[in-house]
Amino acid sequence: MEGVKALTFNVTPWIWLRARALAGLAGANVFWGRPGGLRLREVEPPPLPGDGWVLCRTRLGGICGSDLAMVRLAQP
């Protein structure tokens, strides 16, 4: 099976500090690109958990508010 597109979010302390500093200079847009740790990547689809499961192709998807807060590296 071919890979699927996925938003991945990987933040290290260095990425967090860099994004917070750049956000003060450039605004919130730094969180959506390379400085913020959010990437659109081609990944292998995860294995199905059982025989009764099927893989569906998604046409539209959304991101909830708590996910957006995480991407913006908002402090709790």
Provide a compact summary of the structure:
By secondary structure, this protein is α+β, with helices and mostly antiparallel strands. The chain is built from two helices and two strands, in the order βαβα.
Describe this entry's structure for a reader:
With 76 residues, the protein is α+β, with helices and mostly antiparallel strands. 28% of the residues lie in helices and 16% in strands. The protein is built from two helices and two strands; from the N terminus they run E-H-E-H. Strands 1-2 form a two-stranded antiparallel ribbon. It is elongated and about 50 Å long.
Describe the secondary structure blueprint for this structure:
Elements: E1 4-9, H1 13-26, E2 38-43, H2 65-71
Antiparallel strand pairs: 1-2
Question: What distinguishing features does this structure have?
Answer:
76 residues; alpha+beta; two-stranded antiparallel ribbon; 2 helices; 28% helix; 16% strand; elongated
Spatial order of strands in the largest sheet: 1-2
Q: Give the topology string: H per helix, E per strand.
A: EHEH
Helical percentage = 25-40%
Class inferred from helices and paired strands: alpha+beta
Beta-strand content estimate? 15-25%
Specify the biggest β-sheet: 2 strands, antiparallel
